[in-house]
Amino acid sequence: MSLVNEHIMKLPDSYLFSEIATKVNIFKVTHPSRKLVSLGIGDVTRPLPAACIEAMHSAVDDMASAERFHGYGPEQGYDFLIDAIIKNDYLSKGIFFTPGEIFVNDGAKSDTGNIGEILRWDNSMGVTDPIYPVYIDSNVMCGRAGELMPDGKWSNVSYFPCTEENGFIPELPDKRIDVIYLCYPNNPTGTVLTKQELKKWVDYALDNDTLLLFDSAYEAYIQDDNIPHSIYEIRGARKCAIEFRSFSKTAGFTGVRCGYTVVPKELTAATFSGDRVQLNKIWKRRQNTKFNGASYISQRGAEAVYSHDGKLQVKEIISSYMKNAYMMRNRMKRMELDVYGGANAPYLWVKVPQGMTSWKFFDRLLYEAGLVVTPGVGFGPSGEGFVRMTAFGTYDDCLEAMERLESWMESL
Ligand code: PLP
Fold first, then answer.
1. Cβ atoms within 10 Å, residue 407
2. Helical axes 50-63 vs 308-334, angle rounded to 10°
3. d(CA 212, CA 126)
4. CB 144, CB 122: distance < 8 Å
5. At CA 257, angle to CA 121 and CA 320, rounded to 5?
6. Which of 172, 150, 147 is closest to 160 using CA atoms?
7. Ligand 1: distance of its center to the CA of 16 in Å?
8. For residue 206, which phi and psi values (nearest 5 degrees)?
9. CA 46 to chain centre
10. What is the model's pTM?
11. Please, which residues bridge with residue 319 across strands?
């Protein structure tokens, strides 16, 4: 008899976006002629930068040639991409990494979800709340998160609320925690931490022997100089942090799949008997067994992100999304909605009108304005009372969304 991993069964049936999709599908079936505008799922809409397309076409041609064909590549990624990452994302900021510290992958979701495999199941863990659901769900799956409680929290997870009251800046835990996930710029709130604020977390981690798992999938959207793009801009972080990056939102690679994880060689964790081991070695061993590398074509595309033309094209694409965010933010402020984020991130975090829950606001916007947003409570208990809107649509769609929202607000 095979026994199932019952921890997985503890996860509520529907993942947030499936639940939204079900509601949207029901709406479409019952209102076939109504056009919906979606500010919901966080997928990009602009085509890939031309430099990436060109590089991938050329990589396909390589695959058609016996001399330039690429089969299995190095599990950690091709040197051409790793070198470009080190030079452009880190050396340019005075941060030094060797190629063995960069692990190219098929996007940040896999590694943020899988990293827990190299940590004992009984580490204590903490997350900012609300947060990208993968961090908690992947810990539920291995039993680390404990049991789901009636308030929507997991019994073995510490939550650091990010609320209007604290300006969406989480307070440091008042106890020791083994592993903490941070995501900045933040999905879903679109808020950021300054260098001074992030330093407090790094200092906490160094003082408490805590491992920080830092997801900076949205770093390309940062506009302000005092906002760190990488946790390694903070002194000491290479001793306490793993960083996850992705080409998905930077260069529209959501359908191409490529990202990378940085595991510095200085970073160690303890065995049960107290010896220190390099997490880089353990992660490498895990990847060698379970990952066969991102595709050659994706990696050539990602390399082109760092070319002269690629950089200009990426900048233009990000500016266009940020122009949407700017317009949406201003329009919603004019509607006297409380709106956060959207200045250094493609997400806006909007307070729902008084007396409504996140889901109620979602349902009403869907049925009364033909507008799809994401209920904040789907990202954690502190997300109740908010919805997330994304700036990834076309400018016209974002404008149409704001017009529908304004008319709806006026009708209240
Ligand atoms: N991290 C965060 C915070 C995200 O919002 C997402 C995607 O929405 C990811 C990681 C995963 O990105 P990908 O797997 O496409 O690299």
1. 11
2. 140
3. 10
4. yes
5. 115
6. 172
7. 15
8. -65, -40
9. 18
10. 0.97
11. none
**Cα-flanking dihedrals φ and ψ of residue 73, to 5°?**
-100, 180
pLDDT, residue 201, reads 98
Q: Are strands 179-183 and 241-246 parallel, antiparallel or unpaired?
A: unpaired
The two most distant CA atoms of the chain are separated, in Å, by 67
Spatial separation of the C-alpha atoms in residues 192 and 344, rounded to whole Å: 7
- Please state, in angstroms and rounded to a whole number, the distance separating the CA atoms of residues 113 and 109: 6
End-to-end CA separation in angstroms for the chain: 58
Percent of the chain with pLDDT over 90: 97
Torsion of CA 99, 59, 392, 306, to 10 degrees: 40
DSSP 366-382: IIII-EE-EEGGGG-GG
> Which DSSP letter does residue 139 get?
H
Residue nearest to atom 2 of ligand 1 (CA): 217
Look up residue 327 and give its two tokens: 């317009």
pLDDT in tens, 93-119: 999 999 999 999 999 999 999 999 999
Q: Rounded distance, CA 159 to CA 236, Å?
A: 24
Residue 35 has pLDDT above 90, yes or no: yes
Is pLDDT at 173 greater than 90 in this prediction? yes
Pocket of ligand 1 (CB under 6 A): 42, 107-109, 112, 132, 183, 187, 215, 217, 246, 248, 254, 259
Q: Are 289 and 195 in contact (CB under 8 A)?
A: no
Instruction: Determine the residue of 135, 246, 256, 390 to mutate for testing ligand 1's pocket, defined as the one with the most ligand atoms within 8 A of the Cβ atom.
Output: 246
Compute the C-alpha angle 131/133/137, nearest 5°. 135
Residue 16 has pLDDT above 90, yes or no: no
Q: Could you tell me if 256 and 224 are in contact, meaning their C-beta atoms sit under 8 angstroms apart?
A: no
- Whole-number Å distance between alpha carbons of 359 and 291: 38
Classify 189 as helix, strand or coil. coil
How sure is the predictor about 12, in pLDDT bands with cuts at 50, 70 and 90?
confident
Q: What is the pLDDT of residues 363-372, one digit of tens each?
A: 999 999 999 9
Cα→Cα distances 1→4, 141, Å: 10, 21
**The pLDDT of residue 42:** 83
Ligand 1, atom 5, lies closest to the CA of 187
Interacting residues of 117 by C-beta distance below 8 A, sequence separation 6+: 142, 286
Task: Report residue 126 CA to chain centroid gap.
Answer: 16
